[in-house]
Every structure is written in structure tokens, then in C-alpha cells.
Amino acid sequence: MTFWLVKSEPDAFSWQQQVANGVEPWTGVRNAMARNNLRAMQQGDRAFFYHSNVGREIVGIVEVVRSAYPDPTAEKGEWVAVDVRAVGPMPKPVTLAAIKADPAFAEFALVRQSRLSVMPVPPALWKKLCRMGGWAD
What we know:
Largest sheet: 6 strands, mixed
Radius of gyration: 14 Å
Strand order of the largest sheet: 2-5-4-3-1-6
CATH class: Alpha Beta
CATH topology: ph1033 like fold
CATH superfamily: ph1033 like domains
Number of domains: 1
Number of helices: 5
Low-confidence stretches: none
Order of helices and strands: EHEHEEEHHEH
């Protein structure tokens, strides 16, 4: 299993909407590096659901239930989407401030490439973030 982090602006699509919708296509990614990360996702992979702009925190965990397929919202290009389902909320949301305050995350893409909307999470950092958020994984 590979681990990821996906970002969404909560006023556009929130964790609460993800939970309510069950399985949701992760569409609208228009950055080549983020697209390549979506292409690498496999069924069964897990991702942190991160509220960007408002909140700036990890609020839940989703699981990939369908690997990459052509993004139905794209008018042209080789954009892809994956389908994810909510696994559960983070018991204690993990803020960007808390992540930045820990030197273990200095090279983490969330810190170094703040505009990237889909990024891998190394297994050791996944475990650390789960502990910080009170998630028993």
C-alpha cells in the first residue's frame, strides 16, 4: 500500500461532503506532477484528506477504490481522476502549523511544495501523522 495526501478547499469540496457522498471521483486536478501522482495511485492505497486555504489541516482518511481513469471534467488533455471513499475522520485534525513545527517534516512535499494538490506520503511520515492525529492505523 502506498500513502498519499489529497487537498481540497473546504468551501469547494469538504470532508463532510466526502463522507456524505461515500465514493467520490477526485477530479479537476490540472497540475502535471499531481496528475502523475494520481496515475500512480492504486486501489487500496490510502490518503489523508487535507483542507487547504481554510483550516489547513488533515481532517480525514480516504481509500482509493478505483485507480486512474480519464477525468470526465477535463475538456482536453491527459488528465485523470481516481475514486475515493471516506475511511474515517482524523480524531484530532493535524494542522499545517504542527507539521511545519516538526523538523521530521522538513522535506515533506506539503511543506516544500505547498501548491501541489496530490502528493505521496512516505510510510514513516504517514505513521507519524497518524499518531499526531490520534488515528490507530
